[in-house]
Amino acid sequence: MRPLAALSLLQLALWPTVAVADEATGPFTIAASARLRLESIDGQFRPAPTPENDTMVSLRTEIAASYDAGAVRFNAELWDARAWGQDARSSANTREINAFELVQANVQVPLAGKSILTLGRYTLDLGNRRMVARQRFSNTTNAFTGAHLALEGEAGRKLDLLFALPHQRLPDDTGGILADRVQWDRENFDVVFFGAHGTLPGIAHGTLQPYAFALIERDGARLATTNRRIGTLGARHYAKAAAGKWDHDLEGAVQFGKARRTSAPTDSADLDVFAWFIHAEVGYTLTGGWTPRIAVLFDAASGDGGKPDRFTRSLGPAGSDALKAYRRLHCMAQCLGRKQPRSVRLNWCA
Fold first, then answer.
1. What's the pLDDT tens digit per position in 224-241?
2. pTM, whole model, 2 decimals?
3. β-bridge mates for residue 201, sequence order
4. What does the domain layout of the chain look like in residue ranges?
5. Is residue 197 a contact partner of residue 207, using CB atoms and an 8 Å limit?
6. Is 176 helix (H, G, I), strand (E, B) or coil?
7. 90-349 has which CATH code?
8. Which of 73, 134, 143 shows the shortest CA–CA distance to 104?
9. Which of 62, 61, 63, 54 is nearest to 84 (CA)?
10. Half-sphere exposure of 124 (CA within 13 A, CB side)
11. Which pLDDT belongs to residue 63?
C-alpha cells in the first residue's frame, strides 16, 4: 500500500467507554471513565525514519472529583493517557500519550444568577468547539491555567471572558513519550491566550455567537515558538435542527498579526499574518418516526502557501494525526450528509 492512495487508519474501540459515577446527593461527587483503543496505520505518509506500518494500543483513564463548600466549589480532574505496542520510531506524540496529568484543579465562585468565576487549572468548550475546546477524540486534552468568567443573562444570553496560559504537555521528547514517563505539564507567560465569546439567542431566527481571541507567544528556555502575535475575529449564526424545519450553521473568521516562518532560533524575521476560514451548513429534518436529516456543507480556509497564512485553531479540537497527510493549501471541501437518530451519519465529500 502507498501513502494517501492506500492510507488506512483503523480506530477500533475494543469495547465501549466504561464510566462510573457517584450518584450521592452530598457535597462530594466523583466520576471516572476509561477508554481502550487500537490504532493501526499502513502505508505511512510521514518520511523516514517513521515506520511505514505501525500499531498502537492506548488507554485513557479520567477521574474527576468535586466538593461543594457552599460559597465555593473545588474541582479536580486527572487524565492518564498511556500507549503500548508502538514502534520505537513511532510518530506517537503528546496527543496520544500524557501519563498522570492533573488537567483541572480549580475553585469556582458562584456569582449573581448562574454566572460563575473559575480560577486555576481548567478545561473549556466554547460555542461549537471550533476555536476553544476540551478534547474528545484525542487521548489528551487542551487545558489552561488562569481565569474564566461565565456571565449568564436572561433568555439564554451569555458572555464568556477568559485569560489563560495554555498548558505545554510534557514530556515532549520521544523517549519520555514512548516510556509513558510522568511529568507535570507546564504553563508560563511565554504563551498567553485571552478573549471573549458571546451567545445571543433570538437574532435573525437563530443564535448569534460573536467572538474575539488573541494569542501571544515567545521563545522560552524549553519552548521554541514561531512567536505568533495574532488576533482572531469571528462570528457564528445557527438555527437548531427540528423535524419539518430547515436549519443552518454559518461561521466565518479572520486572523491577523505577526509570526515567524519557523521556530528556529536564527529566524527573527516577523511576517504579516492574514488568514481566514468559512463554514456553511444547511439542513432539513424530515418528519416521521425516524426523522432523518439531510444537509449540505461547505468549508474553505486559507492555506500555507509559503507564508504564515494558515488559519490556526490550535486550542480547538484535534482529530487523528493521519489527517496531517492532507496539508491545507487554500483548502475547499463540499459535503452532502445524512444524519439519523442515535448519531448515525453518512457523508460524501468532494
1. 888 999 999 999 999 999
2. 0.84
3. 207
4. 90-349
5. no
6. helix
7. 2.40.160.100
8. 143
9. 54
10. 33
11. 98
